[in-house]
Amino acid sequence: MGQYTKDIYRDPSGPPAEARETPYIRNFEDTVNLIVSKEPIRVCVTGAAGQIAYSLLYSVAKGDVFGKDQPVNLLMLDIAPMMGVLEGVKMELQDCALPLLREVVATDDPEVGFKDCDVAMLVGAMPRREGMERKDLLAANVKIFKVQGQALDKVAKKTVKVVVVGNPANTNACICAKYAQSIPRENFSALTRLDQNRAQAMVAEKVGVPADAVKNCIIWGNHSSTQFPDVQHATVEKNNQKMSVIEAVKDDNWVKNDFVKTVQTRGAAVIKARKLSSAMSAAKAIVDHVRDWWFGTPEGTWVSMAVMSDGSYETPEGLIYSFPVTIDSSHKYTIVQGLTINDFAKEKMDITAKELQEEKAMAMEACQD
User: Fold this and answer.
1) Is 131 annotated as a binding residue?
2) Is 291 a known ligand-binding residue?
């Protein structure tokens, strides 16, 4: 660190400079040394010229996901017609002069984008427009994720962590995993954290507390209008007292109807209002998802991730289904077991599982075309 940078944090009077260096400076120097000594991790973001990635890339590059001492190499992947836009994004990232950002690559070649990557955030997909059903996206999008799965299988690290965001996210993740046979199934996930965040925020508004006072909301199943947002096991802290959300809300009709429907259709509501799909909130949810996968979840807290079903809660095996999970410091998630499922919840969970089975069947057929 330069002498001028050090001097601006020192009192000009008193003992010699060496004796009056502040703990701030020592900590700052330690952090700089740690950043310099750490190997960068390689992070690929697909759909990198799009609106979600525009928010996401900056968050990744400045340390919101992997920590303030972890350098990153950003590998930005998009289709050939978007390369001009992507070069502009690359220039902006460079112009941010971020200390953690070591390298920025813009490419339309999946084998370049996924080369030796540690984390892949698969954001790019044909976008859903107002009035378009999610199933309409299947035929085109599963072929994209088949190709990306094959490329990941060929060139990515076998420890790569993959989160699929492009819709239909659960089924796209299922197809991607199928065509990346050398990478463990548990390394693939789909994003339902946006739905969890929506549920958490809605409960917080209803109860009159900050969003972070609400814990352990669950999203079961598909990232679609059949998802089941569940607060039966969620808690809220209000007036220094922890209680169940059910107790705090005191409105069973709201919990089973307005709350569920609003969370299920929030994405469509955003599209109707903005004429574009969620971007800022989606980028924030991706940051939350990957950060927790990377560092782990706090004791007593779980998060929602769509992961490969192992039959927990009588869900069909082989689907990418959203469950509550805990995550340890070695990036390993565990589906939370032993939660009581009432008849209302079971019915909702079965509906979303059936949709996922139907989507998977259609996707498998499309992959053969």
Assistant:
1) no
2) no
The ranges assigned to domains in the chain are: 3-33, 34-190, 193-368
Do 193-368 and 34-190 have the same topology in CATH? no
Judging by beta carbons within 10 Å of its beta carbon (0-12, 13-18, 19+), is residue 34 exposed, middle or buried?
middle
Residue 47 Cα distances to 35, 54, 127, 292, 359, angstroms: 28, 10, 10, 22, 23
Give the CATH class of 193-368: alpha beta
Q: Is 88 annotated as a binding residue?
A: no
Rounded (5°) CA angle 327-169-120? 60
Active-site residue numbers? Answer: 223
pLDDT in tens, 349-361: 999 999 999 999 9
85-94 mean pLDDT: 98
Measuring CA to CA, how many Å separate 127 from each of 96, 124, 188?
28, 8, 21
Task: For residue range 240-289, list pLDDT tens digits in order.
Answer: 999 999 999 999 999 999 999 999 999 999 989 998 889 999 999 999 99
CA atoms within 13 A on the CB side of 298: 5
Strands 235-238 and 241-244: antiparallel
What class does CATH assign to 34-190? Answer: alpha beta
